[in-house]
Specification:
The protein has 673 residues and is of the alpha+beta class. It folds into four domains: 174 residues, no CATH class; 220 residues, no CATH class; 131 residues, no CATH class; 38 residues. It contains 24 helices and 18 strands. The protein has a five-stranded antiparallel sheet with strand order 7-8-9-10-16. A hairpin with a 2-residue loop joins strand 13 and strand 14. It is globular, with a radius of gyration of 31 Å.
Length: 673
């Protein structure tokens, strides 16, 4: 029997791969042990050739072939983190989209291959898998769009794994870069030397096939595919020359005498690995400093992410929401908040020792109208929804000097919205893009095409943003004097009061908005001239859509595509003492309570001195009069209770009096007898 039939990590067993499979003719063996398996294995390249790591011309190793000799790679590729492009699979509950941010053109478009409502499929914007990888590869573990050219093309009557084939020019790039295969070590490395930053650097260099070896520290890579011409032929490369494919030099410290390489594999991914892609935290004036923020209460209690979000060998990660249908057919009801802490459909509540909350004094109606996360998850509601940074949207996890609160794209939380009559906390963002209006429908334009068309109009310098360019307003002494008066305007700015600084900032914003309106008119005119067929040039942003009016000036109009995209949040979970409503009924049922009265202000990618703002109740679809009436009823609730108890006491005394009188009369009757 071949050696590799014994080398399947117990990872396969722990993730639910049936032990009987090996005995049923499968080449994927299991250990069925809770211990770890030591991975001293041979490396194979993408052409299934065994690699000699000491060879100076060694090829980069292929996770698909190397790991796939013992693990079911194709099954794993159908898992939740890799199957977004599999159009035949259910999309599941809408989640966080990829947000294509182009600061040069004021663009932030929510994208999803799953076609969640409110998002756009990259193909519809002519965003190829190649472009997608170069934009978002920093937080992609490979697979999906990284292997799009190798997937089955569409045929009549059959769905395809990839909706488009690359153009000839892009095909040449894939030919040189290789596929960006699923890197198992991205999640399952037990070596803290694994570097997502190195992974991203290799992707930016278009060294897709070399990224896994470099990120894991298995090899050093010299050379950049990005520096090679489209028509470069590796066969013509001069030995030792610079014009050649990247050179792979394997680390001899990871090899044994048989030239097998050691992979330090861990069965259950570390929470810090999950956090690389799933970190989210509030920023801005009201945010708790990052160093003083608490982690999820479950992690603080010693649990791990995979305790609540496990998966089978197919990597169908449980997302943990109520009503989730798992692809394996297994019930996962006990892995939702309510299913674990209360009573799940399969009677498995209380898994992993989860306590059953008492919710003393809380009327049962709350469990019908509120999700668990409405009170226990995410930042607590305050007067204004707070700006949020997420790893997927803002590139958290990579070193940067620009993690400021106004970093694009703009996302806020919490926003309390109803779904089928139940209140859930959400994160929310507003789309911004240039588009074409035809027959009432607005279609976004490819940001790169927009940049090419409007480059001379927008005049955004390299490294700058459209917001920065338009907001670069220099006030004259006359402008300042008009707001502060000549005497106050002439003193040092550092001596201005807070009110005076705010007045100057408001004037700068108003002038920036005026400059943007002028720029918008010129841009829409130029964009309109570029349309060869029917259609009206529009810009969408900040919750509004804009087009040129009859006077040649931009006019705002309402359109569904300008509405914000929101997705439910589950973490971080706050402990009971920090949950919403813990201080009493008035925390939610009082005038001005943030859970209903908190403001949600649209975030635009361009200056807006009058941004759209809505109250939570408005976005959630509640009746304000009913809410006010209910809140008013709570104002006298304490007095009503005392009055009720007093009334009960009086009635009790009256009944007691009659009881005594009746009893006395009864004994009097007996005495007469």
């Amino acid at each position: 029997m071949k050696w590799y039939t014994f080398c399947l990590l117990s990872l396969s067993a722990s993730l639910g791969f049936p032990a009987a499979a090996a005995g049923q003719g499968s080449r994927f063996a299991v250990t069925n042990s809770r211990s770890e398996y030591a991975h001293w294995i041979d490396l194979y390249d993408a052409n299934n050739r065994r690699i000699d790591p000491t060879d100076p011309d060694a090829a980069p190793y292929s996770p698909r072939i190397t790991c796939g000799r013992c693990h079911d790679y194709e099954s794993m590729a159908s898992g939740h983190h890799f199957n977004a492009m599999h159009s035949s699979l259910p999309a599941g509950r809408p989640g966080e989209p990829w947000i294509w941010t182009d600061e040069r053109t004021g663009t932030q478009i929510p994208l999803s291959y799953r076609r969640w409502e409110g998002t756009y499929h990259p193909d519809d914007l002519d965003i190829s898998p190649w472009d997608f990888i170069l934009k978002f590869g920093r937080h992609l573990p490979g697979g999906g769009p990284g292997e799009a050219p190798a997937r089955k093309p569409a045929t009549d009557g059959e769905p395809s794994d990839g909706d488009q084939q690359p153009t000839p020019a892009v095909a040449d790039r894939w030919r040189l870069s290789g596929m960006l295969e699923i890197d198992c070590m991205f999640c399952h490395s037990n070596d803290l030397a694994y570097s997502p930053e190195t992974w991203w650097n290799q992707i930016r260099d278009q060294n897709f096939a070399w990224a896994p070896a470099a990120a894991a520290g298995l090899a050093s890579i010299e050379g950049r595919v990005a520096a090679l011409a489209d028509d470069f032929d590796p066969a013509d490369a001069a030995p030792g020359g610079r014009n050649r494919l990247p050179v792979t030099t394997y680390n001899s410290l990871r090899m044994n005498a048989d030239n097998k390489v050691f992979f330090d594999v861990v069965r259950t991914p570390d929470d810090r690995t999950c956090y690389y892609c799933h970190t989210a935290h509030t920023v801005g004036d009201h945010a708790v400093p990052f160093w003083n923020q608490d982690v999820d209460v479950h992690l603080r209690a010693g649990m791990s992410c995979s305790d609540c979000h496990p998966n089978d060998i197919g990597h169908h990660t449980v997302r943990g929401y109520e009503g989730e249908v798992h692809p394996t057919g297994e019930s996962v009801a006990s892995l939702s908040c309510r299913g674990c802490h209360m009573d799940s459909e399969d009677g498995m509540g209380g898994r992993m020792g989860a306590p059953k909350p008492l919710h003393g004094g809380l009327p049962p109606l709350h469990f019908e109208k509120l999700s668990c996360t409405a009170c226990h998850s995410g930042p607590a509601p305050i007067e204004d929804a707070q700006p949020v940074h997420t790893a997927m949207a803002h590139g958290l996890g990579l070193p940067s000097l620009d993690y400021t609160s106004d970093l694009e794209p703009g996302i806020v939380a919490p926003v309390l919205l109803q779904d089928e009559g139940v209140l859930y906390p959400h994160r929310m963002t507003w789309p911004a893009f240039w588009g074409r209006l035809v027959d009432g429908q607005i279609t976004p334009l490819n940001p790169d095409d927009v940049q090419e068309t409007l480059r001379r109009i927008l005049r955004v310098r390299r490294g700058a943003s459209l917001m920065e360019t338009v907001s670069a307003i220099k006030l004259t002494a006359e402008d300042k004097a008009g707001v502060l008066g000549e005497e106050r305007a002439s003193i040092d700015e550092e001596l201005w009061t807070q009110e005076e600084q705010e007045a100057i900032a408001a004037l700068e914003l108003a002038k920036a908005k005026q400059a943007w309106d002028e720029l918008l008119a010129a841009a829409l005119t130029t964009l309109q001239e570029s349309f060869e067929d029917d259609g009206v040039a529009v810009y969408v942003g900040g919750g509004r859509a804009y087009r040129l009016g009859e006077d040649g000036q931009p006019e705002a109009f309402e359109h569904a595509v300008a509405e914000p995209y929101a997705w439910k949040l589950g973490h971080d979970v706050r402990p009971t003492r920090f949950s919403t409503g813990i201080t009493g009924c008035y925390e939610c049922h009082a005038d001005g309570a943030p859970i209903f009265e908190g403001r949600v202000t649209a975030v635009a990618a361009v200056p807006d001195d009058q941004p759209l703002a809505h109250s939570m109740w408005e976005l959630a679809g509640y009746d304000k009069q009913l809410l006010d009436a209910w809140n008013q009823s709570f104002q006298g609730r304490t007095m009503f209770k005392y009055a009720g108890f007093a009334a009960m006491g009086i009635v009790g005394l009256i009944l007691l009096t009659y009881l005594i009188q009746g009893t006395y009369g009864l004994f009097a009757s007996f005495r007469r007898i």
